[in-house]
Amino acid sequence: MTTNKQEKIVVVGAGLMGTGIAHGFASAGFDTVLVDTNVESLARARDGIEKILNDGVRLGKMSAESAGAALARLATCSYLGEAATGANCLVETVSEQLAVKKAVVVQAEPLLAPDAIIATNTSALSVTEIAAALKCPERVIGMHFFNPVHKMKLIEMVRGLATSDETVVRTRALCDAMGKTSIVVNESPGLTTSRMSALLGNEAMYMLQEGTASAEDIDTALRLGFNHPMGPLELGDLTGWDTRLSVLKYLHQSLGEKFRPCPLIIKMVAAGRLGRKSGHGVYRYEDGKQVPDSGLKASAL
């Protein structure tokens, strides 16, 4: 199935993910409206998108004409009611709070085109529960993008209980138009990527706690032995161990014992060693550089 590039796409939420998603749609030829009640966030997002486009020109990945056309297709708006009117697809990327997401889609549904796709970028909340708030839950689907959106090729399409086959087919066509590879996941805690990443990172921390190998050697093993671009401990520092702990607790509660958080993660979070954002996690971060912390042991925390 092909898409009509004249379709209007609305992206709600001008944070990091919303910025990347709006860039992706505008670059793919769609008229795109980025919505946020915070006008300063909208200005930052537009500047961020312009920078990505300019970098693409500088690196020879696109022409200056294509970059200018993409930027011209992007509009910003602080009022969802205005932006959603007649739109063919809405992607919400607001905060991971069920009540907030429901409020967005409930407000937008009667304004969108009658057959519009309603997508959520959530990686943790229930697509089925979000859809249940609407009159046409069959049009709701998860579109889980990855950061940074302009570099990451994967989109997890998440089927809720009511999601129709037609919605899946049309959403896949949008993914194809953006140059992304899509997979279909039936709604499940952690989907595919979050679930596997959490398990791998947790096991790496158990190995570190038990003294199986140093953090650097564990990460090197995964990078060189499995061709991962980043080791699991480096990735945990990048994601934030508080975020990783939250995901593990949720998966432990919903999927069982194999996701029990490693005690070392719990201790690190309690100590404020959250990773890059705090300047210290499994590794130290000094002047933007990653520095090994040879003194990290379970007993040291």
From TrEMBL:
Q: Which UniProt keywords apply?
A: NAD, Oxidoreductase
Pfam family example for this protein? 3HCDH_N
Name the InterPro entries on file.
3-OHacyl-CoA_DH, 3-OHacyl-CoA_DH_NAD-bd, 3HC_DH_C, 6-PGluconate_DH-like_C_sf, 6PGD_dom2, NAD(P)-bd_dom_sf
What GO terms describe the biological role, i.e. biological process, of this protein?
fatty acid beta-oxidation
Q: Binding of NAD(+): at which residues?
A: G13, A14, G15, L16, M17, G18, D36, E96, K101, S123, N147, K277
Q: Outline the extent of the 3-hydroxyacyl-CoA dehydrogenase C-terminal domain.
A: 192-285
Q: Identify the residue position(s) of the site Important for catalytic activity.
A: H144
The organism's place on the tree of life at top rank: Bacteria
Per UniProt, residues of the 3-hydroxyacyl-CoA dehydrogenase NAD binding domain are: 8-187
Q: Name one GO molecular function term.
A: 3-hydroxybutyryl-CoA dehydrogenase activity
**Protein name per Swiss-Prot or TrEMBL:** 3-hydroxybutyryl-CoA dehydrogenase
Biological source species: Marinobacterium aestuarii
Give the source lineage, highest ranks first: Bacteria, Pseudomonadati, Pseudomonadota, Gammaproteobacteria, Oceanospirillales
